[in-house]
Amino acid sequence: MVDLVPARPEAFFADRFNITSSTIDRLLGSALRGKVDDADIYLEYRITEELVLEEGAVKKASRHVSQGAGVRAQAGTRTGYAHTDDISIKNLEEAARQARAIATDASASAVVAVPNGRPHDLYALSETPVAADLTRKLDLLRAADRVARAADPRVRQVIASVTSEDVIVFVVTAAGWTVGDLRPLTRLNVTVIAEDEGKREIGSYGGGGRVAFDWFLEDNRWERFAREAARQAGLKLAAVDAPAGTMTVVLGPGWPGILLHEAIGHGLEGDFNRKGVSAFAGRLGQKVASELVTVVDDGTIANRRGSLNVDDEGTPTSRNVLIYRGVLCSYMQDKLNARLMGMKATGNGRRESYAYPPMPRMTNTFMLAGEEAPEDIVRSVKHGLYAVAFGGGQVDITSGKFVFSASEAYLIEDGRVTAPVKGATLIGNGPDALTRVTRVGHDLKLDEGIGTCGKDGQSVPVGVGLPTIRIDAMTVGGTQV
Amino acid sequence: MSGIDADLLVSVLKRATGLGATAADGFLVDERHFSATVRLGEVDTVTHSHDQRLSLRVFAGRASAAASTSDLSPDSLERVVAEATRLAKITAEDPHAGLPDPAELTTSIPDLDLADAGGHDLAPEAKIDIARRAEAAALAADPRVTNSEGAEFWDRQARYAYATSSGFAGGYRTSSFGITASPVAAQNGEMQRDAWYTTARKRAALDDPAAVGRTAAARAVRRLGARKVKTTEVPVIFDPETAATLVRAIASAAAGPSLYRRASFLLDRLGTKIAAPSVTIVDDGLRPGGLGSRPFDGEGLATRRTVLVSEGVLQSYLLDSYSARKLGLASTHHAARDGAGVTVATTNLMLLPGSARPEDLIASVREGFYVTELIGFGVNGVTGDYSRGAVGLWIENGAFAYPVEEVTIAGNLLDMLARVDGIGNDLVLRDRTAAPTVKIARMVVAGD
Fold this sequence. Notes:
Distance between the termini of chain A: 59 Å
Structural class of chain B: alpha+beta
Low-confidence stretches of chain A: 1-6
Number of helices of chain B: 9
Strand content of chain A: 35-45%
Radius of gyration of chain A: 24 Å
CATH class of the largest domain in chain B: Alpha Beta
Helix content of chain A: 10-25%
Largest interface: A-B, 84 and 83 residues
Mean pLDDT of chain B: 95
Distance between the termini of chain B: 60 Å
Order of helices and strands of chain B: HEEEHHEEEEHEHHEEEHEEEHEEEHEEE
Oligomer: heterodimer
CATH architecture of the largest domain in chain B: 2-Layer Sandwich
Low-confidence stretches of chain B: none
Structural class of chain A: alpha+beta
Strand content of chain B: 35-45%
Number of strands of chain B: 20
Number of strands of chain A: 22
Largest sheet of chain A: 7 strands, mixed
CATH topology of the largest domain in chain B: PmbA/TldD fold
Number of domains of chain B: 3
Shape of chain B: globular
């Protein structure tokens, strides 16, 4: 039983819950308008499906439905937020009453302008991944299992999963702006455990996006993901201890762009800068990276995991140049922080679900390509580390210190890539790590569509991207002194 | 207790068996949450929420599937049952799938004193004021505390109910309360943040908000002037907060799903020495008022006290009934529910204290690193390889010399556990997982 997808979000919520933009408008008007600086109501309906293969068979299948509404009121720097998972006028009124309580002594007045521009149309699909035939998904998982096992006889376990979701959102603001969005999202992940002579290692690979199920079949992506997971595990079985200390690091293209997400991305989110708690606060117009470095956050790329037609406040996403030739030129903003900083909302107001108020978040964050051949960049290094695959990362916004953990890396000796090394954490300081970028390749790649970013307990899908780059002097947290 | 909840679950399970399920179980959570954040004395964000979710697992013989919904209307529940039943028909048979043997289900549900019925009855203004007092104390503690990410008061009340088609039905209520302060200290253009917190099942058991603020301020201020150190190999002391992360890593490797997937460095180690003899780790789900306590697990089995590691020897894994069957062992009653079905979770997990005073552990080190915060995800649960970003204080001649940042510490968890050569007497159950101060004889610190 597939009970989706309706033609328009507004019609969906009207049919299912008897809530329309005019009922919401009345609610916003009576409860909130004139008493707060801004207010909005966010309705969300979400179906998530997960299929997991283990030991050659799909033994786990689950499907989850969640729905709810969040009501937000803002006055000055104050935010009142209430949500309910029982979408009815009565509950919305109660939520509005709770949200409004913060506005008791608000200066009040300024009605926020309707956002400029129209919503994008970045991921209209003829069939969403949730709606795709289950048997095709099961067949894909079984095929991925076979490919991963055939790729290397040392593969002992394969865990493959397909996760798909359809999210319908509808936003109504106090300024009268109403906008809806249908957001499909899917991801295939393959994890293998390889064993050899008593040693065990793990390899993991995957990808996805706001795409139809067929995307996995195009160019045999699924097969590449399965082989890649097996290859990584096999490679790690032969890895030597990673070096410890400060050295030249070359990052491969694609997912290593997590460097940007941690080193500068979070530090450029509007909330931290408005509060003056980011290491980048007050540094607009200053040089924070080498001239080779231009970084953008772009929520408008078709079918990408981090893309959105509108953010979760109804603002159309945009392509924001964060760093241009080394100079810091923009923060990422939601409406509240844009208003308080006298800046423009950039379409970065995002939330995990109706259960949370939005805050400034990244979309797809990447560095633009340079001119060098990647092999020349590796060749330029006498002694260093070449890291091509990473796990997660984390940053301390205030001190600017960030880490990201390599899962596939090699030594560079005399300009040649040599032994694979065990996973190691790389650590640096956000405001100056990019000043040491001395070479940028022409091979910009966006990641395969696997990123999830956590902030303040809220997870949202994001993308990153990077060309091959050389960073002179980065600390590598291995064990070989 | 939660009669209405259990009745609802039982009716959903009946519907599932009516549609052909051979067995089923269901879990219901209803949570109310309030949070108030104050920043620089002003209200920043106030949130109210009410969430409910019903999760259902159905079996069609040895095949199973799960479904859940936050919409508890009859139509929606009917859809959830149909959905789970449909999915169960397409999943593969699994000889190990199934509910626990009904004989194992708990027959008595202990009252672990997990709720504070009156504790939530506090006006939002009073809750906001608690956060305000915590932040004000942080800002007043030291002139170098110049900014703040805010202070928060939160409280949560939850109802849980669980039922099986084999006849179990039970429920319980919990409360929790917390205060967090996150001040920012600055000096000579450098900024450092840190935080401190208190969490409890009873509001009256929370630490004084001003004390939370002062501790947070002291933690932020002591980071000012932090620098990198030269790459070296030295003794490393984990403070109680960071030592607790090591205990979590061990528990994660001891969890059934990690083991049957062969994705654990503790595979095939049951009954063997995995740590120094000073290491004893216990998971005690029965502590009255414990933050991790629960009267029964996610499959209706009685909660216990489990010795995970005794004097360095791995005594038990952490298993639900599925992973136990896969491994040929018995459940340790550690099942927990997530949306997708059953998983394994610890309760009140702790490394038992040793006899050393923490200051004596520090005094025992000529040159070394006292770790107060770890960042990143550099723990490989399959191999135990460990490499994380760290913040803390450098020790010279048995005393703190200066703060340290932008370094990593690395090793392998099994080596680290074997090299534990001091455990403090300072265990405090501040959170669901807790540890005293832990000294490890040598680790690599990477810096300049």
